[in-house]
Design goal:
Radius of gyration: 21 Å
Number of helices: 14
Number of strands: 16
Oligomer: single chain
Strand order of the largest sheet: 3-2-1-4-14-15-16
Order of helices and strands: EEEEEHHEHEHEEHEHHEHEHHEHHEHEEH
Largest sheet: 7 strands, mixed
Shape: globular
Distance between the termini: 50 Å
């Protein structure tokens, strides 16, 4: 029987303190790093990654089922086509999915995420009930499908059941397209307890909650949920959609007397356990308030561009030292580098200047973007995935140093090229999650059967 090797020596690796050479990584049975040592001597059994190693990043916002919609809404269905008309099409599509459909789509999506460089995902899931809106015998049916998909594929998962009650501010009654989403604080806590009993949390799996948005819950039910959650788990992550659309902001002012971010910060104890997703419509005061709260801003540039949401106040938020990460949301793209690239480009277009997001410590935009997305994604996930350091998970990417975009590059030039140069296949060659190789030479062991199952599912859904 071959010995289990839980060691790796990287020619160069990005550590919290910067780039280091000949880095020895060792991890335990749970996939947690126990040794991170630069300038290490060669060891007899330790494999060598003759390339550049980066810490893996968490995708902090995902609606897995929407992967199956990619490319299906790129036509004008309304003279004033917007997020709101897109949402109607999304409801129609969501009404077709069965639990096996959801799992097939999620498996395909999670493989694609790993190939792109994401090693964890925060799944913001609101497709709870059967197609007619009736509860499943197991209320967590679809949530379990997502856990199984993540575990089979090998990606880390923070699962966030969504509380969804109303169609709009003022407790407006939900409409038919939302029947599969509707629940209550009591339903949420029951489901969390069921999940914990059947699938105990560990370094690879975390549970939290996601009140969908201020328009979809009432202030009273939101507080009820948060009170119950604290009694269950003080450290549980809380994610919410916020200030994504101008109409949402206007309706919030009309119903609650304040803009969404301002109302949330003034009325709820928002801290580092929170992730505010989108927040593309904030005043300077809200931007500063969000940064000071220590909550994570969840930025989803490809989806926000696809839906015409708006542009996040990135330069102002960076100046206030706000925490942020990126997510692929509706999965019109699952490319980590594209999310980071488009985030910077949105700021360039907004301000008509170049190299906008650099932080206080350096001049490399790619380094700033990668490090911030790593830090924010880890915080939003509520899991030990904050980089290559002792006590964190052995989640890492091996870059192909022979890729044309990386040839001859060193240090932060590698990150600048990873983010901004895009020619042909991804430079991500191999991926490790929790001490296990899940991508080898750009391929996943389930790649072919997953694609076949996904193709079969799509044919049925689009028939």
């Amino acid at each position: 029987m071959k010995p289990v090797i839980r060691q790796l020596i990287a020619d160069r690796a990005l550590l919290p303190e910067g780039w280091r050479n000949n880095v020895l990584l060792e991890w335990d049975e749970q996939g947690i790093l126990t040794t991170v040592q630069a300038d290490a001597e060669a060891l007899a059994l330790a494999p060598r990654a003759a390339a550049t190693v980066l810490p893996g990043i968490a995708n902090l916002h995902s609606h897995a089922f929407q992967r199956a919609m990619a490319g299906l809404t790129e036509y004008r269905s309304d003279p004033s086509d917007s997020f709101w008309s897109w949402r109607t099409l999304m409801y129609q599509f969501a009404g077709k999915l069965s639990p096996p459909d959801l799992k097939a789509v999620a498996v395909q999506l999670y493989i694609e995420m790993l190939q792109a460089g994401y090693t964890s995902v925060c799944e913001f899931h609101y497709l709870h009930h059967d197609k007619d809106g009736k509860p499943y015998a197991n209320p967590a049916e679809n949530l379990v499908c997502l856990i199984e998909a993540a575990q089979e594929v090998g990606i880390g998962l923070t699962l966030l059941p969504v509380m969804y009650q109303y169609s709009g501010f003022g407790a407006q009654a939900p409409h038919a397209g939302q029947a599969r989403f509707i629940n209550s604080p009591e339903w949420m806590m029951d489901v969390l307890q069921r999940l914990q009993a059947a699938h105990p949390q560990d370094a690879g799996l975390r549970f939290g909650v996601a009140p969908h948005s201020l328009r979809a819950v009432s202030p009273q039910s939101l507080q009820h949920l948060l009170t119950a959650l604290k009694q269950w788990d003080l450290q549980a992550p809380v994610h919410i959609h916020i200030a994504e659309q101008r109409k949402e902001v206007e309706d919030c002012i009309g119903a609650l007397g304040a803009r969404p971010v301002a109302w949330l910060l003034d009325n709820i104890e928002v801290d580092h356990h929170w992730c505010l997703v989108h927040a593309t419509h904030m005043t300077p005061e809200e931007t500063l308030g969000l940064a000071r709260s220590a909550a994570v801003a969840g930025i989803c540039p490809t989806t926000e561009a696809n839906l015409g949401d708006g542009i996040f106040n990135g330069v102002e938020y960076a100046a206030a030292q706000g925490v942020w990460g990126v997510g692929s949301d509706s999965h019109i793209s699952t490319s980590l580098s594209e999310e980071l690239r488009l985030y910077e480009y949105s700021q360039r277009l907004q301000h008509r200047q170049r190299n906008m997001l650099v932080g206080e410590q350096g001049v490399s935009v790619g380094a700033y973007l990668y490090r911030q997305a790593l830090h924010g994604g880890a915080a939003a996930s509520g899991r030990p995935v904050a980089g290559l350091q002792v006590g964190q998970r052995a989640d890492l990417l091996v870059l192909d140093q022979r890729h044309a975009d990386l040839e001859g590059k060193h240090g932060d030039q590698l990150l600048d090229s990873f983010v901004f140069a895009h020619h042909g296949q991804t430079p991500v060659r191999d991926v490790m999650v929790g001490g296990h190789w899940v991508i080898n030479d750009r391929k996943h062991r389930l790649q072919e059967p997953s694609l076949a199952a996904y193709a079969s599912t799509m044919k049925r859904l689009l028939a």
